[in-house]
């Protein structure tokens, strides 16, 4: 079977793509509106794209697409990053999965997801949006570029600083190099539909010698 994207309905294409690009990491993005309301929402169209400079990207869509007689209404996250240029990406560990999912609900504009799902809005160091206090890793970002994709946007952000909970950091005994202890982090990935994955089942393959 061949699916031609230009001839396929968006909903069908969405189901094929979210089942094909799996598992996807989840950016749990905190932003702040220009009037100071904190916002929090998950985005699985997300990845890290560069180390020098440290850069990540995620893709928020629209609450309502443009029609012949109305303009599109952006999701609050997209509005906030456009207007303030700042956001924080919090990593979703398994113990936070329920709250992450609940934070994707369509709350009224004056309700902060932090209080709605009972999370601590902990002040960030370099940006105004708070980080999720309960998250084991949070990355403070400044917008590098927002590329309009038509039905959604690609937000690229430069990572200013990374908050790491002590328990999640391992230091190599010889080199002192820091790395992340995945057994502690227990990150969650998004599959298709309502399915999520953990990383409990792993296998190792050494890099090729030549
Ligand atoms: C695990 C998960 C991943 C999601 N990924 C995306 C995504 O990549 N892009 C998107 O526009 N919406 C995504 N959503 C839906 C948004 O989280 C949802 O529309 C949310 O209400 C947006 O909030 P906001 O209006 O406060 O920005 C996802 C939802 C869940 C539960």
CATH topology: Pnp Oxidase, Chain A
Overall 3D shape: globular
Which cofactors or ions or other ligands sit in this model? flavin mononucleotide
The CATH class label is Mainly Beta
Largest sheet: 7 strands, antiparallel
Mean pLDDT value: 96
Kindly describe this structure:
- The model has no long low-confidence stretch (mean pLDDT 96).
- The chain is built from five helices and 15 strands.
- It has one domain (22-197): Electron Transport, Fmn-binding Protein, Chain A (Pnp Oxidase, Chain A, Roll).
- The chain has a seven-stranded antiparallel beta sheet with strand order 2-1-7-10-11-4-3, with helices on one face. It has a two-stranded antiparallel ribbon with strand order 5-6. A two-stranded antiparallel ribbon has the order 8-9.
- 16% of the residues lie in helices and 33% in strands.
- 28% of the residues are buried.
- It is globular and about 65 Å long.
- A hairpin with a 5-residue loop joins β1 and β2.
- With 210 residues, the protein is of the alpha+beta class.
- Residues 26, 39, 41-45, 59-61, 75-77, 101, 104, 106, 190 line the site of flavin mononucleotide.
What layout of secondary structure does this protein have?
Elements: H1 10-20, E1 27-32, E2 38-43, E3 46-50, E4 55-58, E5 62-64, E6 73-74, H2 76-84, E7 86-91, H3 97-102, H4 113-116, E8 121-122, E9 131-132, E10 137-148, E11 153-164, E12 169-171, E13 178-180, H5 182-185, E14 189-190, E15 196-197
Antiparallel strand pairs: 1-2, 1-7, 3-4, 4-11, 5-6, 7-10, 8-9, 10-11, 12-13, 14-15
The protein binds flavin mononucleotide (FMN).
